[in-house]
Each structure stands twice: as structure tokens, then as C-alpha cells.
């Protein structure tokens, strides 16, 4: 009898251990190499018509979506910089004027880049907008985010390290099929710097490729290492030059001094964007801004607190292993104290989701170097699996660390559907399944309103 009871206890212990173990997916993606789409691919085609506006994209023009910044490029001449907008294509009675910029990068000169902020928008309303007057007019639409509130539902797409390969196209197609209202993009856009002389024509092709989504819903930009475009050998020493000319952010509305770190409030989420490749040591502008921004978060109005950055703090892949460690050491305690719900990162070209762990107790004396379970800690999601030319990061560390819940070397995208102040549903979709197939999912509970153990 005693022996049977002991065997039963041992069996139960094995089951519990198995239930708590993380999953390294055995799924293996296709064997073909990742390749950029050819320059004559349909998705890169410029719109017809003389000086037709192209590369149209939008992002929030203020912190809550009552302003929207529209950007586009005209290839032949500056043209008319006016954007007309309104509640229907026939009644676009409002208008705004764009600013104009261009830049040179080695032997490349950009087209005429326009940025125009549409103001006096109402929350949760569909607007139509058009530009290109005088030559070729193009018309688009978007719906503004709902007014921030504690129980306002909203669905985000989560994409990172996209590039412009055939896999990238699959990622965008899958995201469009799954649907979302805005994209949280965690850095590394065009991968133009992978080409000789940082061929900036690949910035143009990338922007035409993603126009089908980003012209109709806001994408929120995080700067990654492939946005640096630093190459002193060809005389290019201005950091982020193509990115800053092409992709504005609402940083001034967030009280930031630079476009690389800022915040927005969408529905029931307060979203903080950080820059892994800008200074973040003590008393630097980013450090000072984040110390103040966390104090401005109102969890009673926007209960979900989400942080975006590029280089992950927790990563069990040998690719880019521990590259985010100095930033983690600087800021992790702040995020745990603030009860951040989710930290999204890219950089590593695979997928990984963590449990709620932290490593805030370690110092060089106490030796407590192992992350420990912490219900105040965020879930870390590495979503740098958009499909870029550099390929899949398929060299996970062994054994799988306890903080990691699920990991897989595949391309894909994720969605985060906030239901109310307490619950959000998260899904990850690999490209090589049908669009609606979920490869990883979890119900998340809010750290402020319902800090239960949602790790499994």
C-alpha cells in the first residue's frame, strides 16, 4: 500500500513537472532559403499616373488618435502637398498641408517625401483622405482608434523584422487575413542596409510593399539596428537618416526629445516605445523621459501597459544572445515596479514567449543570477520573425530556461486582442499554416486589475 502511494506521488510529480515545462516546438519550416522578392514583383509596383503618390503610410499624429500623420512620396516633382479628408469620398471638406523633405544617401537621392498631420478627428470614426491633386489623385481611408478607456476592446497586430522576402509577403498576407486595427512594429523595416552601399531603392520598394496595410491603419514604429544606416566607409555617419526622413512618430506629443522613444494611448492600452540603439544610461534623455513617463501612466484609464523595444531582454536563442542585457539591467526594475503587462521585442529571427519572470535581485555580490518567477513581471514576447533576408534563427540554447514558455524557429506574426481591463487574448501564427491556424496562444490577465498567474 505504501509503495503504491509512493508510486502515485511520483507519477503526480512527473505530471506537474511536465505541465510546468516550457515547449520548444519541434515544427520545422520549409528548407528553401529565404529570398527577397524581385524588383518586378507585383507588390513593388508603383501606382499608375504621372507623379502618383506612392508609399502611403499613416501613424498616430498625437497620443490618442485625434490626429493622424499621413506620409507619401512623389517621384517626379513635389506636386501638391494638400491632403483632403472627410467622412466620405464625396465630402472630404477638411484639408491640411504637408511638409516636404528629401535626403541623399551616398549615390541615392530620395523622391519628394511628404508628411501631413490631419487634425480635429473624432475617436472611432472612419475617414477618407486623398492626395496628389493636380496630377494623379489617390484616395484611402482609416478608422481612428476609440477613445481611451478601461474596458475598450482593441486588436493589435504584432510584427517585427519584416524585410521584403517572399516570407515577408506571407506574413503581411496572414496578418491581413487575421485582422487587426493597428500594428505594433518592433523594428527592422526594409533591410536596405543588407544591400551594397545600403541601396536606398529598397526603402522605396518596402514602403510600396506594405502600403496595402499601413495606408489604411496606423503602424507604430520602433527603431531597430537596421534603421541605423551608419556606414562611414561611404561617408554616411548620420544615424537613422532614411528612417527619420520617412517615418515620423508622435514623440513631441509624448514630451520626448527624440523620435525614437515616445508613448501613445490606444483604447485601453498605454504603449511605450523605447530605443535599443540610443543612449539609455543614467541621466540620458531617454532615461529621464522613461522615469517621468512611467509616472504618467493611469491604469484606471488605460489598464494595459505595453512596452516596445528592438533588442530583447530575455532571449534563449544563441543569435543575439544577451545583446539587450545592459538595457535590461538599467530598466527592468522600473518595469516590474510599474507592473508592465507585456514587453515586445524583435531582433532575433524566431519566435519566443516567456513566463512572468524577473532578474532584479542580482548584483555582483549576491550571485542571484537566475531569473525567478515574479507575478509583477511582464510577459516577454520576441516577435522578430517577420520574414527578412537574413533567415531564421534556429539555434536555441539547451536546456530550455525556466523563464521560457514557448519557442519556435519559424516566421510569422501575432495578434493581441484586448477584451477589457482584466483579460486579453494573445495568438501567434506561423506563416506555413493556414491564416487562421494558431500555433501558440494564451489568455493574459492584467497586472494592475487581475494579477493572477497566467504563465500557462
From TrEMBL:
Name of one Pfam family that matches: Metallophos_C
GO molecular function, one term: metal ion binding
All residue ranges annotated as the Calcineurin-like phosphoesterase domain in the record: 155-351
Ranges of residues in domain Purple acid phosphatase N-terminal: 53-144
Protein name, UniProt field: Purple acid phosphatase
InterPro entries for the chain: Calcineurin-like_PHP, Metallo-depent_PP-like, MPP_PAP, PAPs-like, PAPs_C, PAPs_N, Purple_acid_Pase-like_N
Gene3D superfamilies: 3.60.21.10, Purple acid phosphatase-like, N-terminal
Amino acid at each position: 500500500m505504501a509503495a503504491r502511494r509512493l508510486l502515485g506521488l511520483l507519477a503526480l510529480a512527473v505530471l506537474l513537472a511536465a505541465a510546468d515545462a516550457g515547449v520548444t516546438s519541434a515544427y520545422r519550416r520549409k528548407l528553401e532559403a529565404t529570398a527577397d522578392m524581385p524588383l518586378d514583383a507585383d507588390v513593388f509596383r508603383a501606382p499608375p499616373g504621372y507623379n502618383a503618390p506612392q508609399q502611403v503610410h499613416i501613424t498616430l499624429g498625437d497620443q490618442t488618435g485625434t490626429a493622424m500623420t499621413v506620409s507619401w512620396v512623389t517621384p517626379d516633382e513635389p506636386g501638391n502637398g494638400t491632403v483632403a479628408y472627410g467622412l466620405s469620398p464625396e465630402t472630404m471638406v477638411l484639408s491640411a498641408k504637408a511638409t516636404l523633405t528629401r535626403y541623399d544617401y551616398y549615390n541615392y537621392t530620395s523622391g519628394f517625401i511628404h508628411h501631413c498631420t490631419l487634425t480635429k478627428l473624432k475617436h472611432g470614426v472612419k475617414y477618407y483622405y486623398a492626395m496628389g491633386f493636380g496630377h494623379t489623385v489617390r484616395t484611402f481611408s482609416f478608422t481612428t482608434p476609440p477613445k481611451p478607456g478601461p474596458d475598450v476592446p482593441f486588436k493589435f497586430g504584432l510584427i517585427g523584422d519584416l524585410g521584403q522576402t517572399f516570407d515577408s509577403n506571407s506574413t503581411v498576407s496572414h496578418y491581413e487575413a487575421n485582422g487587426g486595427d493597428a500594428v505594433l512594429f518592433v523594428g527592422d523595416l526594409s533591410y536596405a542596409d543588407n544591400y551594397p552601399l545600403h541601396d536606398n531603392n529598397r526603402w522605396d520598394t518596402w514602403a510600396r510593399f506594405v502600403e496595402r496595410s499601413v495606408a489604411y491603419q496606423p503602424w507604430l514604429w520602433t527603431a531597430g539596428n537596421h534603421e541605423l544606416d551608419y556606414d562611414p566607409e561611404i561617408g554616411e555617419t548620420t544615424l537613422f537618416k532614411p528612417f527619420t526622413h520617412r517615418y515620423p512618430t508622435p514623440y513631441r506629443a509624448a514630451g520626448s526629445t527624440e523620435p525614437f522613444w515616445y508613448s501613445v494611448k490606444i483604447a485601453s492600452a498605454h504603449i511605450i516605445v523605447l530605443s535599443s540603439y540610443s543612449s539609455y544610461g543614467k541621466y540620458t534623455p531617454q532615461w529621464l523621459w522613461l522615469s517621468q513617463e512611467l509616472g504618467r501612466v493611469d491604469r484606471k484609464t488605460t489598464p494595459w501597459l505595453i512596452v516596445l523595444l528592438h533588442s530583447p531582454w530575455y532571449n534563449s536563442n544563441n543569435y543575439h544572445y544577451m545583446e539587450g542585457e545592459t538595457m535590461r539591467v538599467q530598466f527592468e526594475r522600473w518595469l516590474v515596479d510599474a507592473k508592465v503587462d507585456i514587453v515586445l521585442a524583435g531582433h532575433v529571427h524566431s519566435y519566443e514567449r516567456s513566463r512572468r519572470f524577473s532578474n532584479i535581485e542580482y548584483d555582483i555580490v549576491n550571485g542571484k543570477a537566475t531569473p525567478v518567477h515574479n507575478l509583477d513581471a511582464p510577459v516577454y514576447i520576441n516577435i522578430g520573425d517577420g520574414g527578412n533576408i537574413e533567415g531564421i534563427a534556429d539555434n536555441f540554447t539547451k536546456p530550455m530556461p525556466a523563464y521560457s514558455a514557448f519557442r519556435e524557429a519559424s516566421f510569422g506574426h501575432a495578434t493581441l486582442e484586448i477584451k477589457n481591463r482584466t483579460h486579453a487574448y494573445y495568438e501567434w501564427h506561423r506563416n506555413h499554416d493556414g491564416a487562421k491556424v494558431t500555433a501558440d496562444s494564451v489568455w493574459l490577465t492584467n497586472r494592475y486589475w487581475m494579477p493572477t498567474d497566467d504563465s500557462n
